[in-house]
Design a protein that fits this description.
258 residues; alpha/beta; Nucleotidyltransferase, domain 5; six-stranded mixed β-sheet; 31% helix; binds beta-D-glucopyranose; EC 2.7.1.63; transferase; polyphosphate-glucose phosphotransferase activity; Polyphosphate--glucose phosphotransferase; ATPase_NBD
Length: 258
């Protein structure tokens, strides 16, 4: 681990995803990871208990003793996971935050994955210092969303689940996975995404839209082609680390580290 001043404010960030669980200690004042992140395959079936064992393994690997911030790809309300769109059904209504806190024996805050990414972008990335209404969408297996108003996160917006076209939810129409599954060319995919973003514009009139998720690495293929929008659209800046950093930040706030 990189040497830090004794006064450095550090929280362990963990990002739980469908295929991998990643973690690293984060300096929550700078957003920097203190060392290379560690990734462990998500166990299958990914029950709360099995995932808990991996989270514990990460804590032990870093010999971690302090607070933990942890993401999850579902609605997380008061520490309970209330949906399971792309994860094992056993998470539905699970007291996930308590389960993970108990298994690690440490103070732990659970937060939706897109909310964590949005928080991190708001403080250290593409929306740093931006006032107004910032919307972030993550285009991956599903579509995640984060709404930040004057720096304050409005959590669990779940805009990937907007009923949108042909009575389908948006993430079944234009997630990154849909592009792959249907083998959509960039032009066709961008058209779908543009329709969705126009719908978001109609409902929310954001001042800035940040696009994250795996597909945002190829932002030059689709962002410049988007039309009819009243606000700038920019790619996420923190890339793969946004979840880890945002979760650590949320926990730092919750447990008085910041
Ligand atoms: C879930 C969201 C999550 C998003 C990205 C959606 O299916 O409902 O909670 O943020 O996927 O992982």
């Amino acid at each position: 681990m990189i040497e830090q001043a004794a006064s450095a404010k550090i929280v362990l960030g963990i990002d739980i995803g469908g295929t991998g669980i990643k973690g690293a200690p984060v300096n929550v004042e700078t957003g920097e990871l203190l060392c290379e992140r560690v990734r462990i395959d998500t166990p299958q079936p990914a029950t709360p208990e099995a995932v808990g064992a991996v989270v514990k393994q990460l804590v032990e690997q870093f010999n971690w003793q302090g607070p933990i911030g942890c993401t999850f790809p579902a609605i997380v309300h008061n520490g309970v996971t209330l949906s399971a769109a792309n994860v094992d059904a056993s998470w539905l209504n699970a007291p996930a935050q308590d389960i993970l806190a108990q298994v690690t024996g440490l103070p732990l805050k659970l937060i939706n994955d897109a909310d964590a990414a949005g928080l991190a972008e708001g403080v250290f990335g593409a929306a740093k210092g931006k006032a107004g209404k910032v919307l972030m969408i993550t285009l991956g297996t599903g579509i995640g969303s984060a709404l930040i108003v004057d720096g304050k996160l409005i959590s669990n917006t779940e805009l990937g689940h907007l009923i949108f076209k042909n009575d389908e939810i948006a993430e079944k129409y234009c997630s990154g996975k849909i592009k792959d599954d249907l083998d959509l060319k960039w032009k066709e995919y961008t058209q779908r995404l543009n329709e969705y973003i126009l719908h978001l514009q109609l409902l929310l009139s954001p001042d800035l839209l940040i696009i994250g998720g795996g597909i945002s690495k190829k932002h030059d293929k689709f962002i410049p082609e988007l039309t009819g929008l009243r606000f700038p659209v920019v790619p996420a800046e923190l890339k793969n680390d946004a979840g880890i950093v945002g979760a650590a930040l949320e926990a730092a706030r919750e447990f008085g580290v910041l």
